[in-house]
Design goal:
It is an enzyme of class 2 (transferase). It contains 31 helices and 39 strands. With 1067 residues, it is an alpha+beta fold. Strands 28, 29, 30, 31, 32, 33 and 34 form a 7-stranded mixed β-sheet that branches. The longest helix is centred in the middle third of the chain and has 55 residues.
Length: 1067
């Protein structure tokens, strides 16, 4: 090492000694260049220039004036240029409290006066310095902290300890003061006792709470306070107040350091005060006179009253304002201020809201006092909820009584008045001269005396005077008695009448005076009615007998048996009656029930009792008698025995039981029929499903065999129609049973109805080789009002059955006529005859019962659900009609349907045709041709769309499709008027349903919007669904699955075919 390197090291050593050992500012800055640059260990801790560096060193020496010894374990130097050198050193600063390791990086420049420090950078390898603090501020803070700790150790009963912030607070440290206070010899003994976890030095009952409170407070800050019981080495516990804060331990782990001081004496004093508090009746507490009336202390009475525990109330902030009824709080604050202007004692009444939501009234008395320049209230309150309720109840009673008093003045009272019991005064009196017993201004005592003297029975008068004395009425009111009722015969100037007088006492809430309202009614007619009723009641008994249990004497008060003596010995009369009238098998029970000793025991044990026996009258007819035994007067031991004849009642009960049994049997049979129906439905549904699935598979395998494929498709169609009909029958029956089947009365075109029925049934008959004929009587009018669809359903149901049960070569005939015509309605008769298999006489009574079928193999041979006729019968009943049937097994059946339809006008036009045999041929949908017609199809289901498009294209339609109602609306709006001949609209579609789309189309401002035919195609097939479609502006409603023939026929009706086009003529 050369001389210059040694000179550089010498300057660095001298600089550090001057700063850290001698703490000499002037000498220290003498080793620095004027343009010195300094970087310390803390964040943003820099100085540039000699003045800034001097200020920094001054601050450092002022904050920590104790000097350090400086050691240089490592120092290295090298010249960078002839006049520029660098020095790296590791140094240790140490004083009485700390050993501090630093690294220094120096750049020195040779000037005229020698080497001087141009740049200085200190770095700290440890964690003793915190980010952003002034170098070396950590040591300053640490020294101050240790001074505070020493002060605490000298003055507090307790000490310090710490734990890591982890589960159960693992042990971090404990000072000697704390160890000694808890009775431990050393730290190792303490750690072993708590198993290395600070939480184990706490009372088990406090651990969960302490853990929760500390965790909660550290979530929102770096400090916490908590109180708990701490275990000493001898197993006893002390109460400690723990003040802690979060810190970082030397090893970098988060920890807490806490000061714990013993507050056992304070807690015991508080408990003693609380014990004294709790022995004081009611609620006693102290609170601050602040905005929230903060609670300082309270006895258990307060918390019992409001329903909160101390911990729960602490969660509310220990604020009484939190439980004062919100609307009362401003008034409470105002009254506090007003009363405190007069004196330091206050008395208020207010409502408190308890934990359970109830509201209670409290009467609070408080004394204001000052302590440490702070205002407090010492308070006592009592629960006045019941008193308040009683006051309110008294107010309500008084107000109600006043209202009644006013209302009664215009009623049928014979007299009414108001007596002031407190003032001994009759304040008000309304009556007629005939009933008057006093006048306004009389004393209470005079009124009661005159009222009592009006009784025609002196004893009753004395009883009234005694009960209604003023002092007695006051005493009664104090114990809750406020009503008096007297019913007696009173004398008047013109004779006498039965009187019912009611007295009702209540407190006047304004004056506190006791008021007695009274009302008198003339009940003479009522008493006469009661006497008459008593006479009538006596007629319901064969015998009413009184027995003296002491003497055994019997007295008959009423009897319809002339053989029964008016008086006799009870036991003798019982024996004579038993031998004469009671059936032998009932005699023993009769004697037992009417044994005098047993009668008294039974009455003592269970009170009045009854029993029944069977007897024979003089005509030897069996009669059922009911005896009732009860006391007339228990003290006098007078018993009463009544006997009544319940023969007819028993017979009625037996009849009802028989009827109930029959009804139960019918219900069981109906349930069995329903069960059988469900079993059949399972078979019936599976049968066509099996055919559909099977034929679909065969058709898929026979694509190269058109004949075989066509045969399969035909059978699939047949099975599908059968399955659809079965489902429709089940749905219709469900609506009938729930009472939701309603008629839709509207125009009923006779020709269209019969042609529609014949179209459907003639095709079925022709396919089976059955001759079908329809005969229409000229008396039929061209139009009626009624439910055309339901009537068609009835006729098709019965005609389909006729075709189904008629073999090839047979005949089915429909005959329609009008049999009765009135101004507003007419009776139309439809007779359907067939030459089929007929119905057995045994099954005819059950023909129209739901779920019933003739179980003779007919169902198996011809199929069916057993619901069609039940549905038809219910529909006809709704039409105020009837169905009759005649049948002979093997020869055929005749159904006669008569329905009542509305008449359109008195001059109704006749149909004008006699036969509908050719109707179906003229309206065969398979002959229709719609070539060139354009139709808009709205359907969201891809398969349904494909099926509908193929069906429509097969008849020449040009088809545009839309997947939602919104798309259909856009397609229509984008098209020119009259470019579409019709719109087929599904109801249930996403985005916009068919009903909304149809309504929107009708509202479009274009020439064809109101007339373009819109047809609903939906699975919603009930009447209300049809009504919704029509209400939305649709012209027709087709239920899925779509019948192609019905689809073609409907479109033909709306837009015509190639030869006729009523829709086109609208353009």
């Amino acid at each position: 090492m050369g001389d210059q390197e040694r000179n550089c090291e010498k300057i660095v050593r001298a600089f550090c000694n001057a700063w850290f050992e001698t703490r000499d500012v002037g000498k220290t800055t003498g080793f620095l260049c004027a343009d010195i640059d300094f970087i310390g260990t803390g964040e943003q801790e820099t100085a540039r220039g000699l003045d800034a560096m001097r200020a920094y060193i001054i601050t450092d020496i002022q904050e920590l004036d104790e000097s350090f010894s400086v050691a240089f374990p490592v120092m290295k130097c090298r010249l960078l240029q002839a006049d520029l050198g660098s020095v790296f050193t590791e140094m240790i600063l140490q004083n009485s409290q700390y050993a501090w390791h630093l690294r220094g990086f120096f750049i020195l420049r040779r000037q005229s006066e020698g080497w001087r420090i141009l740049s200085l950078h200190f770095a700290e390898p440890g964690r003793s310095q915190q980010q952003g603090e002034h170098y070396p501020q950590t040591l300053v803070v640490e020294r101050l902290r240790r001074q505070r700790e020493e002060l605490l150790n000298d003055t507090l009963p307790g000490g310090m300890m710490g734990g890591y912030i982890a589960e159960d607070f693992p042990f971090y440290f404990i000072n000697d003061q704390m160890l000694a206070y808890l009775g431990y010899q050393d730290e190792a003994e303490f750690i072993a006792d708590i198993q290395g976890k600070i939480i184990n030095c706490m009372h088990p009952d406090d651990r969960r709470r302490v853990d929760a409170e500390v965790s909660f407070q550290l979530e929102t800050g770096d400090e916490y306070t908590v109180e708990y019981r701490m275990k000493k080495q001898d197993g006893s516990y002390i109460w400690v107040h723990d003040l802690g804060r979060r810190l970082q331990a030397e090893d970098g782990r988060p920890a807490i350091s806490s000061v714990c001081y013993d507050i056992t004496a304070q807690i015991q004093a508080q408990e003693e005060v609380l014990r004294l508090y709790n022995n004081i009746p009611g609620a006693v507490f102290r609170c601050r006179y602040d905005e929230k009336l903060s609670l300082v202390s309270a006895n258990d009475g307060l918390f019992d009253f409001i329903g909160y525990t101390r911990a729960e109330f602490a969660e509310l902030g220990n604020q009484l304002a939190a439980i004062i009824e919100p609307e009362d709080l401003p008034d409470v604050v105002r009254r506090l201020r007003e009363q405190l202007r007069q004196a330091k004692t206050i008395h208020i009444e207010n409502r408190l809201r308890c934990k359970d939501g109830s509201v209670k009234w409290a009467s609070v008395k408080a004394q204001l006092f000052m302590e440490n320049d702070e205002s407090f209230f010492d308070c006592v309150f009592i629960d006045i909820t019941e008193e308040k309720q009683l006051r309110r109840r008294e107010e309500e009673l008084y107000e109600r009584e006043l209202r009644y008093f006013v209302e009664a003045a215009s009623g049928n009272q014979s007299g009414q008045g108001r007596l002031n019991v407190t003032q001994n005064l009759l304040e008000s009196y309304l009556t007629t001269a005939n009933f008057a017993v006093a006048q306004v201004g009389d004393s209470y005592d005079q009124v009661i005396a005159q009222f009592a003297h009006s009784s025609m029975d002196p004893d009753t008068g004395l009883r009234i005077e005694k009960q209604m004395q003023r002092e007695q009425v006051r005493a009664d009111y104090a114990v809750g008695k406020s009503e008096y009722h007297f019913e007696f015969l009173r004398s008047t100037r013109e004779g006498a009448f039965w009187s019912h007088t009611t007295f009702h006492s209540c407190l006047n809430p304004e004056t506190g005076e006791l008021i007695l309202f009274f009302y008198t009614l003339d009940i003479t007619e009522q008493k006469l009615q009661e006497q008459l009723l008593d006479q009538i009641v006596s007629l319901n008994y064969d015998i009413i007998a009184e027995i003296d249990a002491h003497s055994g004497q019997l007295r008959i008060h009423a009897s319809n048996d002339p053989m029964v003596p008016a008086e006799d010995q009870f036991s003798l009369a019982i024996e004579q009656f038993a031998s004469r009238y009671v059936k032998p098998e009932f005699i023993a029970e009769y004697r037992r029930q009417l044994d005098l000793d047993r009668m008294k025991r039974t009455l003592a044990e269970q009170g009045p009792y009854t029993f029944s026996v069977e007897m024979q009258d003089d005509q030897r007819q069996t009669r059922v008698k009911v005896y009732k035994v009860f006391y007339l007067d228990r003290q006098l031991e007078r018993l009463c025995v009544t006997r009544s004849d319940v023969t007819e009642v028993v017979r009625q009960e037996q009849t009802q039981k028989a009827e109930l049994a029959a009804a139960l049997n019918a219900a069981q049979q109906a349930n069995a029929a329903k069960t059988d129906f469900l079993s059949r439905m399972s078979h019936e549904i599976r049968t066509p499903m099996n055919a559909i699935l099977g034929m679909s598979a065969i058709a898929a395998q026979s694509l190269n065999d058109p004949g075989r494929t066509g045969e399969c498709i035909e059978k699939i169609q047949l099975s599908s129609r059968f399955l659809l009909g079965l489902i429709n029958d089940i749905l219709d029956m469900s609506r009938i049973e729930s009472g939701k089947l309603l008629l839709n009365n509207g125009p009923l075109l006779t020709r269209r109805l019969i042609e529609g029925v014949s179209t459907l049934c003639a095709g079925q008959a022709a396919a089976k080789g059955v001759r079908y004929r329809c005969v229409v009587d000229p008396s039929l009018q061209a139009e009626y009002t009624g439910d055309s669809m339901k009537l068609q359903q009835v006729l098709v149901n019965i005609l389909s059955n006729a075709v189904k049960f008629t073999d090839s070569g047979g005949e089915v005939i429909l005959h329609a006529s009008q049999v009765l015509a009135k101004k507003e309605n007419a009776v139309v008769r439809f007779v359907i005859r067939d030459t089929g298999v007929g119905i057995s006489p045994e099954f005819l009574p059950h023909l129209f019962e739901p779920f019933s079928q003739e179980s003779t193999g007919t169902t198996a041979a011809y199929g069916g659900s057993g619901l069609g006729l039940a549905i038809s019968k219910s529909v006809v009943d709704l039409m105020d009609g009837r169905i009759n049937v005649r049948s002979e097994k093997g020869k055929g059946t005749e159904f006669t349907i008569e329905v009542k339809l509305g008449v359109v006008s008195s001059a109704a036009e006749a149909c004008g045709w006699n036969s509908a045999d050719a109707a179906s041929a003229n309206r065969n949908p398979r002959n229709l041709d719609f070539t060139g017609r354009r139709i808009l199809l709205a359907e969201d289901n891809t398969i349904n769309t494909e099926v509908a498009v193929l069906l429509l294209q097969a008849k020449g339609f040009i088809v545009d499709t839309a997947e939602t109602g919104e798309q259909a609306l856009r397609c229509y709006e984008a098209s020119s008027p009259y470019s579409y001949d019709a719109i087929l609209m599904d109801i249930r579609m996403p985005v916009m349903d068919g009903l909304s789309a149809a309504a929107a189309i009708r509202r479009c401002p274009r020439a064809d919007a109101a007339q373009i035919p819109i047809v609903a195609m939906t699975a919603n097939a009930f009447d209300d669904d049809i009504a919704k479609s029509l209400a939305a502006g649709m012209n027709a409603h087709l239920a899925k699955p779509i019948d192609p023939d019905l689809l073609y026929q409907t479109l033909n009706d709306l837009i015509g075919n190639k030869e006729e086009n009523p829709w086109r003529t609208l353009k």
